[in-house]
């Protein structure tokens, strides 16, 4: 079992839910390399080595877009290389699609990695969440898809999933599900939703650009290119725990100690204050 780490192997992802899920299911897990703290980007060579060296038929948890917590996604060509190696190794990719539309503003583009795996003949699983991109966080609405070899395998997997669901929640609340199905089944409502998702994504991208420019205009000695290179709701700022503490104590700006901040919380009204605070907190290392 291979699971996605938050920051390479520097620290635990215990604050995130995936580890709790595997532990409670009594599934043994290992982490693989993903984020490079120096480049603040993808550690692609180490990732590929881990995929290659994992036992054949391993289960990998992947984020298809807007990776949480790093905001770092593979390129299309890198996804193709990953998919090819998965096929060679007979690994099973399970995609956690929690932020579709938040990486590029385009729902189809954000699903490109999944399509690459399917086109290469990989069997896949995908957990799709509408909690964020439809504003239904409290409802936790989503769907689970598993691509099977044939109808017989599909029936067997479905029966197992039904047993698990029966023991966990029996039947889910219907209100949020009806909202999602209503929007997706109505062409005009779906088109409006797609446009609004794009507006949200564009706002976040615009504020990334503004935050980076503001830091550069303050003559910060640090490189802030990763702010605009990363995508999605979260920015892995590269701030140290000490710098995060300075932001909390001196400016009442709060983020996780690994430097992950929510770009959705940055606005035109507070971005200058945020940039000045980060500049002051990072002046002396």
UniProtKB/TrEMBL annotation:
Q: What is the official name of this protein in its record?
A: Aspartate aminotransferase
CDD domains associated with the record: AAT_like
SUPFAM superfamilies recorded for this chain?
PLP-dependent transferases
The record's GO molecular-function terms, alphabetically, read:
L-aspartate:2-oxoglutarate aminotransferase activity; pyridoxal phosphate binding
Annotated GO biological processes are: amino acid metabolic process
Residues forming the Aminotransferase class I/classII large domain are: 17-278
Q: Which UniProt keywords apply?
A: Aminotransferase, Pyridoxal phosphate, Transferase
Enzyme nomenclature, EC number: 2.6.1.1
Report the Gene3D superfamilies cross-referenced here. Answer: Aspartate Aminotransferase, domain 1, Type I PLP-dependent aspartate aminotransferase-like (Major domain)
Q: State the needed cofactors, names only.
A: pyridoxal 5'-phosphate
GO cellular component annotations, sorted alphabetically?
A: mitochondrion
Species, as recorded: Populus deltoides (Eastern poplar)
Q: How does it assemble?
A: Homodimer.
Additional note from the record = In eukaryotes there are cytoplasmic, mitochondrial and chloroplastic isozymes.
Spell out the Pfam families in the cross-references.
Answer: Aminotran_1_2
**Which family is this protein grouped under?**
Belongs to the class-I pyridoxal-phosphate-dependent aminotransferase family.
Q: Which reaction does it catalyse?
A: L-aspartate + 2-oxoglutarate = oxaloacetate + L-glutamate
Which EC class, in a word? transferase
């Amino acid at each position: 079992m291979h699971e996605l780490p938050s920051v390479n192997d520097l620290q635990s992802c215990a604050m995130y839910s995936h580890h709790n899920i595997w532990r409670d299911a009594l599934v043994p897990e290992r982490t693989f390399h993903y984020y490079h703290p120096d480049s603040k980007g993808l550690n692609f060579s180490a990732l590929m080595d881990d995929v290659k060296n994992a036992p054949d038929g391993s289960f990998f948890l992947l984020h298809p877009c807007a990776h949480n917590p790093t905001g770092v996604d593979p390129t299309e060509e890198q996804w193709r290389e990953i998919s090819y190696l998965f096929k060679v190794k007979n690994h099973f990719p399970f995609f956690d699609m929690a932020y579709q539309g938040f990486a590029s503003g385009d729902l189809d583009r954000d699903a490109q990695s999944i399509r690459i795996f399917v086109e290469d003949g990989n069997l896949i699983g995908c957990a799709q969440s509408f909690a964020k991109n439809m504003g239904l966080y409290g409802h936790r609405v989503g769907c689970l898809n598993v691509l099977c070899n044939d109808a017989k395998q599909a029936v067997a997997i479905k029966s197992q999933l039904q047993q698990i669901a029966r023991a966990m929640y029996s039947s889910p609340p219907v209100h949020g599900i009806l909202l999602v199905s209503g929007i997706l089944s109505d062409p005009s409502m779906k088109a409006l939703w797609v446009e609004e998702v794009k507006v949200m994504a564009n706002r976040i991208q615009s504020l990334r650009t503004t935050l980076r420019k503001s830091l550069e205009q303050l003559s910060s000695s640090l490189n802030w290119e990763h702010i605009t290179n990363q995508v999605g709701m979260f920015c892995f700022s590269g701030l140290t725990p000490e710098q995060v503490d300075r932001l909390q104590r001196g400016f009442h700006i709060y983020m996780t100690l690994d430097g992950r901040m929510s770009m959705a919380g940055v606005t035109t009204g507070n971005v200058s204050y945020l940039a000045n605070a980060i500049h002051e907190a990072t002046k002396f290392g």
